[in-house]
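Tokens as discussed.
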């Protein structure tokens, strides 16, 4: 079972605080006002960071607000880094915290952005950066930790809360985590994209495009080329050679194909930015994946969006199972709420009735004797005897 976030910091017999007193109160004393304010602010920061990471995948928002997204990412990472350092300073068993589940989540919340800011040479490839961006989604699990911290603080402070409110909080937190994680994973599994380096005409209606970041099998029957280029559009994919980093596409219009030379020509748009290629798929952003995730966990399944890659189908299978778990949680909450509203309690009195002694008494309203099973008359006597 996963340890409570506060259980790894100090043993039961430890009474002296570790590190500065004010910092220890900030992280480990639920009754302190600074503790409550800090964790409430941290929950808001985690929520904003999670939604910001999802909105950053939308093409119409990424370019106009790129500086805002980057500033928010740096600010959020700075807050998480300070929080991680604070936990290390106020933890007696520091290695236990580092290698604990919540310690690893705290570390993975800051490492991807630090590597990107540091511009590590080994992580410059598109595939490595995609893995780092996927790891950022684990920040949503920090919300679960904050909920556990709040429940733990209520138990320690003997604060009574409405059970329905607490159950709904746990349910919506679980649903939010499933939606964010599943939609992010399905986006990175299905949406294959990169940048084009050069173009070359093969014949009157076939062009060869070179891209250094091609990987894997053929992404889909069609390829999407975007950017200020005469070759922009959705074209049929003719061949795919990932090891040699090129693919060919069929261009129906000979005039468009004629704009490419017989030798390799560098591809840049009017602003000097590279032209991009992308797999033709409906999973073009994390918000798009959220719609698919909601229809999947609610078992609606419109069929307008579905994964076609093996990693995407694995994500879909886990999402379906999570949907069943969420449905069971919701039915349990609704059932207990209705029992409280109707009967004033959420517990069923299942005590067995005391066994009766002696002969069975006859109820005039019974139609059959509970002892011998014979049919009864209206006055409660055996019908056969009454006839005699």
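Sequence:
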């Amino acid at each position: 079972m996963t340890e409570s976030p506060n259980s790894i910091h100090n043993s039961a017999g430890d009474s002296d605080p570790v590190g500065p007193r004010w910092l220890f109160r900030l992280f480990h004393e639920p009754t302190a006002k600074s503790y409550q304010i800090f964790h409430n602010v941290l929950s808001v920061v985690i929520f904003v960071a999670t939604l910001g990471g999802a909105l950053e995948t939308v093409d119409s928002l990424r370019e106009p607000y790129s500086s805002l997204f980057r500033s928010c990412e740096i600010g959020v990472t700075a807050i998480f880094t300070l929080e991680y350092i604070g936990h290390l300073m106020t933890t007696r068993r520091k290695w236990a915290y580092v290698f604990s589940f919540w310690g690893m989540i705290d570390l993975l919340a800051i490492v991807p952005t630090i590597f990107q800011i540091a511009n590590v040479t080994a992580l410059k490839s598109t595939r490595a950066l995609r893995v780092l961006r996927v790891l950022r989604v684990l920040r949503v699990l920090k919300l679960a930790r904050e909920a556990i911290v709040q429940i733990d603080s209520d138990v320690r402070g003997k604060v009574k809360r409405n059970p329905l409110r607490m159950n709904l909080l746990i349910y919506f937190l679980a649903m939010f985590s499933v939606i964010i994680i599943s939609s992010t994973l399905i986006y990175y599994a299905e949406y294959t994209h990169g940048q084009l380096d050069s173009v070359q005409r093969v014949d009157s209606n076939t062009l060869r495009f070179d891209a250094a970041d091609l990987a894997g099998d053929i992404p889909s029957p069609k390829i999407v080329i975007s950017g200020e280029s005469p070759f922009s559009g959705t074209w049929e994919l003719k061949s795919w050679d990932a090891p040699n980093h090129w693919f060919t596409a069929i261009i129906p219009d000979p005039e468009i194909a004629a704009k490419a030379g017989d030798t390799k020509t560098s591809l840049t748009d009017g602003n000097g930015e590279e032209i991009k290629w992308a797999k033709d798929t409906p999973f073009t952003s994390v918000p798009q994946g959220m719609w698919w995730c909601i229809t999947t966990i609610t078992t609606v399944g419109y069929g307008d969006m579905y994964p076609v890659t093996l990693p995407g189908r694995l994500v879909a299978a886990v999402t379906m199972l999570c949907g069943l778990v969420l449905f069971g949680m919701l039915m349990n909450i609704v059932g207990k709420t209705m029992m409280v509203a109707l009967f004033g309690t959420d517990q069923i009195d299942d005590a067995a009735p005391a066994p009766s002694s002696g002969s069975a008494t006859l109820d005039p309203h019974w139609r059959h004797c509970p002892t011998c099973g014979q049919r009864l008359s209206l006055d409660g006597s055996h019908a056969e005897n009454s006839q005699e």
